[in-house]
Amino acid sequence: MEKPDLDTIRRRLETFRDERDWRQFHTLKDLIISVNLEAAELLELTQWKRDDELSRLRNDPAFQERLREECADVFLYLLLVAGEAGFDLLQAAADKIEKNAVKYPVERARGSARKYSELGDED
After folding, report:
1. Could you state, in chain order, the average pLDDT of each consecutive group of 10 residues for the chain (123 residues)?
2. By its UniProt entry, which PANTHER family does this protein fall under (predicted)?
3. Fewer Cβ neighbours under 10 Å: the N or C end of the chain?
């Protein structure tokens, strides 16, 4: 099976939605809520698990399938949010990487988990 591109995924998603007459439920607010609900399901996969347990689960096919599905759910809702809001999600992601590069210059941010506002000039 050929790897689909983003436009193909977006069209398939919109067709899936429209065939079921679900657009009526896809207000911007409800789509944003749905992103968060799906992100919570993704988070739930790691709840109460120790790092060593998660390391082992990375090789478990059932865990991998659940992880793939939850990530896909978040991604698909994000595509719908972007479509409803009228922006290109890939361009927004590229723009955000550029903004973050300015906020977190390599010479000050390398190896640090601090927020950009906490990075000093003398690190």
Report:
1. 92 98 97 98 96 93 97 98 97 97 92 88 54
2. DCTP PYROPHOSPHATASE 1
3. N
Return the structure tokens found at 48.
């109460």
State the Cα–Cα distance between residues 84 and 26, nearest whole angstrom: 8
> What pLDDT does 120 receive?
79
Domains along the sequence of the chain with CATH: 28-87 (1.10.287.1080), 90-123 (no CATH)
Q: HSE, CB side, 13 Å, CA atoms: give it for residue 85.
A: 15
Residue with tokens 């090789």: 59
**DSSP annotation of 104:** S
Q: Tell me how far the alpha carbon of residue 100 is from its chain's centroid.
A: 17
